[in-house]
What does this fold into?
Amino acid sequence: MEKRLRIGIFPNLPKEKVRAILPKVVEFCRQQEIPIAFPREIAGIYGVMGYDQEDPASLSQLSLALTLGGDGTILRAARYVTPLNIPLLGVNMGKLGFLTEV
It folds into this structure.
């Protein structure tokens, strides 16, 4: 059975810019019919599937990981998703961002 595309969003929640953009990300993905998942602690707020970043079985439902934050956010997410061969893309929502160029 082919794995369906599901993007796991790894947000840096302490950043105000990240919290402000999350509803827009959800709305865009719904309009495009792109399934997404958020950390379990906030997934219910947005009505999306949740994941536990420390549980490989939970993360295995993801086909792509997208970080919203900075270099620290992408490095933290990489620790969990790279052993599972899940591609990782970082969106810089901070000031510098050497690793998160998008």
